[in-house]
Design brief:
The protein is about 85% helix and about 0% strand. The chain folds into 2 domains: about 120 residues; about 160 residues, Four Helix Bundle (Hemerythrin (Met), subunit A) (Up-down Bundle). The chain is mostly helical. The protein has 11 helices and no strands. The two termini are about 20 Å apart. α1 crosses α7 and α3 crosses α4. The longest helix is centred in the middle third of the chain and has 37 residues.
């Protein structure tokens, strides 16, 4: 029960921080007006979910219930492990996001949001790697987190736009332009995910243990993640090379329907991948 709550806390926190960074990034790239309330809600959610993650993490360590918390263990975790520093940095970044929102500078919130998302690298396998290898591992993990956040944020904006805007010819051509602009950004995201993911896999167990990892439960879940990632690539390719050209021609109702379905599937697949990552981060890669 406690372990399930811990995985759920990791999942919810990852989604929240990914959107907190990904939404402002996509708005900035596309020159769109930001939505301050959305950003503020995600920042507040990040603070609350970080507290829940801390309680679930401490309960998992001790085998005790989440509530009431074991205050002595909680004190040790916050003062004698890197978790205290991670939460302090994340909390400061999230408060800075709120400050930018209140000041009407939503786009600037991207910077502290990126810092908040990067702190996730210290709460998984990368955080346990030591010395120079640990620095390389965490750097690769941060790139992975940022790239995934950019993709998720873009998908949410594109899907929301397609579902809420009336499918007029002008709106569909605008959507086609957004998809075309995202194609360059999407290519950079995919390259970043592939390269950083390869570095992460090697850093977690080393070259000599890769085959053993693939035979463990961790390897099975990792394979599922890669299959889902491949599905996202296929859907993205269909959007770019098949559906976008049809939208550029005007109000193609059939293309609009297919695009809605494709983006919904791609977004759902991204959420499933995050759920797998939340689980993978709690497992021994060779067990």
């Amino acid at each position: 029960m406690t372990e399930g709550a811990f995985v759920a806390a990791r999942f919810a926190l990852m989604i929240d921080l990914a959107l907190l960074m990904g939404l402002p990034l996509f708005w900035w790239v596309m020159g769109m007006a930001g939505r301050p309330r959305h950003v503020a809600a995600l920042a507040l959610g990040g603070l609350a979910l970080s507290a829940f993650w801390l309680l679930a993490s401490t309960a998992t360590m001790t085998g005790a219930p989440i509530l009431p918390p074991d205050w002595s263990t909680l004190h040790i975790v916050l003062t004698m492990t890197p978790i205290g520093t991670v939460l302090a940095v994340r909390g400061g970044a999230l408060l800075l996001v709120l400050a930018f929102v209140l000041a009407g500078r939503v786009r600037l919130s991207l910077l502290p949001a990126a810092v908040a998302a990067a702190t996730l690298a210290w709460t998984g396998h990368a955080g346990a790697t030591e010395n120079m290898a640990g620095q390389v591992h965490r750097a690769a993990d941060i790139v992975h987190i940022w790239a995934a956040s950019a993709w998720i944020g873009a998908l949410v904006v594109l899907l929301q736009s397609l579902l809420t805007h009336h499918p007029t010819t002008a709106n569909m051509r605008h959507m086609a332009r957004m998809l075309s602009c995202f194609a360059v950004m999407g290519s950079l995201i995919v390259v970043s995910l592939v390269l950083s993911g390869a570095v992460n896999a090697v850093m977690i167990v080393g070259w000599d243990q890769l085959s053993a990892m693939l035979q463990a439960r961790y390897g099975l879940l990792l394979t599922m993640k890669l299959v889902l990632f491949g599905l996202m690539l296929l859907l993205a390719a269909a959007n770019r090379w098949w559906l976008t050209p049809r939208l550029e021609g005007g109000n193609d109702q059939q293309a609009i329907g297919w695009l809605r379905l494709s983006l919904a599937l791609e977004t759902s697949t991204a959420v499933a991948i995050v759920a797998l990552v939340a689980w993978l981060g709690t497992l021994d890669p060779l067990a």
